[in-house]
Amino acid sequence: MKQADLIWMNGELVPWEDAKVHVLTHALHYGTGVFEGVRAYETPKGTAIFRHADHIDRLWKSAEMYCMEIPYSKEEIRQATHETIARNGLRSCYIRPLVFRGAGPMGLFPLDCPVDVTIAVWEWGSYLGDEGKANGVRAKVSSWRRISSESLIPSAKATGQYLNSVLAKIESHKAGYEEGILLDQRGFVCEGTGENLFVVKGGRIATPGYTSDILGGINRLAAIEIARDLGYEVAERDIARGELYLADEIFMTGTAAELTPIREIDDMPVGDGRPGEITRRVQAEFENALHGRSERYASWLDVVQVPQPAT
Ligand SMILES: Cc1ncc(COP(=O)(O)O)c(C=O)c1O
Questions:
Q1: For residue range 179-227, what is the model confidence (pLDDT) as tens digits?
Q2: Of 157, 169, 174, 201, which residue is the catalytic one?
Q3: CA 24 to chain centre
């Protein structure tokens, strides 16, 4: 992670060091924030944000689910993101929009606290490493279960909900693995700590659906569409834990991790322990889409408009 110069905070670009909040910020105490993880890539048409509209829509949905009204329009947030990237002079970056309950009355009732909005950007390489993207990572099924719809809203990308992923991430890291896989409350496969999961067996692809309390990943949708366009069958269905051990190939998708193969699960090699052919084909097409090398998926890219200097 490389520090940038400016962060957008409630309508203004402020120096990175000055983007601060009060200790009585409601979200610090109770996790009352929603956010997005987005990426922009250098493409032949200039810097472009991958599936930007989908990320903004999900941010709005997450905010709605926690009764937060965002005090800007979607277009204003889109423009602010363009401006933040351009003013930081970045060609490719990770983008973190955050909407949170700010400093106001303490106590669990949040609706009298202000809704603050920030957009930070920074240069960030692949989350699970270039080596992981090329050769696959080692993952472990976590002892922690994914949060369920009985107590939270798994389809919302809310800050407080991430304590679940944090516990699983710490556990897998301490045990010497690159990623943890969470099962849902019923014991079916759900997802990684920050990625959706795909299992390949006998040439067919399967991925858990919303009934497994997944976060509806935007890269998951992209991978499903690409795989189908390549002629593969993709089923959204319950996946038993044992299917992970029987799989020919497993891969994960997420904005941070992009498309990363899993080469070993619970110390057992996946297939022959190397990313398989289907993973490689979907990954190659996915990378083409991210970097603007694919005409077919060109509409997924929001090219950053560089603001003209005032005359
Ligand atoms: C828990 C969780 N699941 C899945 C994903 C993948 O979502 P996306 O592809 O939209 O980044 C993420 C990342 O945002 C995540 O945090």
A1: 999 999 999 999 999 999 999 999 999 999 999 999 999 999 999 999 9
A2: 157
A3: 28
